[in-house]
Amino acid sequence: MYTLATDATPRSTPPKNEHEILHQFLISLGKAIDAKDAGTGSHSSEVARIAEAIGWAMGITGKEIRWLSMAGLLHDIGKIGIPDSILSKPGPLNDEEWEIIKTHPGKGEAIVRPVEEFGKKKSVADIVRHHHERFDGLGYPDGLMEEEIPLGARIVAVADSISTMLQDRPYQAGRNFDEAMEEILVCAGTRYDPDVVEALMSVREDIKHILPGIDR
Ligand SMILES: [Fe+2]
Ligand SMILES: [Fe+2]
């Protein structure tokens, strides 16, 4: 018979606090997303860790640094609503398929917004919606530019690109860390917020060390 543990029951490890349990649950959800998207086994965790490191370097603390980490884990959750035939296509996508891919930030926002904490201004839902906006306004889904884009989304955009460049894709081998950094620098001011890129460069060695299997 199953019996509930009581306070008198000795525990081998101390109980986790709720923040820690929630964070671990979001890591699980991130792994579910990664399992659906070919070649990205640790993408969501990598994005969260890189985004958090950049966030600290920019002086972000408290609940906003937690939102950043959570949004990193959940940024691609909308891919659950994208057909596998598109996500795993072994070659470049056609225009129609791209239009479908571009719906994943909006789908992701809708998935996370019911969590009251995530629906607050500039919190997780806003970051998930805007993680593919570009600093020059040429991104999607809303074509926001510069400070119109929530800061957390500008940070996740950089972290997302780094992780994506390092991963092997079905039609393209991953780049090494230095090549990825070079590409980010080249696109500072167009694709990426130059202040975010500057913060990234100040912690680039730390990031190199927190990413597993980085030397490939
Ligand atoms: Fe995405
Ligand atoms: Fe991503």
UniProtKB/TrEMBL annotation:
- CDD domains listed in its UniProt record: HDc (cd00077)
Protein origin, superkingdom? Bacteria
Tell whether DNA damage is among the UniProt keywords: no
Keywords carried by this UniProt record: Hydrolase
Indicate yes or no for the key word Hydrolase.
yes
Molecular function via GO: hydrolase activity
- Coiled-coil regions listed: none
Which Pfam families does the record match to this protein? HD_5
What SMART domains does UniProt report for this protein, alphabetically? HDc (SM00471)
Enumerate the InterPro entries for this protein.
Cyclic_di-GMP/3'3'-cGAMP_PDE, HD/PDEase_dom, HD_domain, HD_GYP_dom, HDIG_dom
Domain HD residues, every copy: 40-165
| NCBIfam families associated with the record | HDIG (TIGR00277)
What is this protein's record name?
A: Metal dependent phosphohydrolase
Q: Give the source species.
A: Pseudodesulfovibrio piezophilus (strain DSM 21447 / JCM 15486 / C1TLV30) (Desulfovibrio piezophilus)
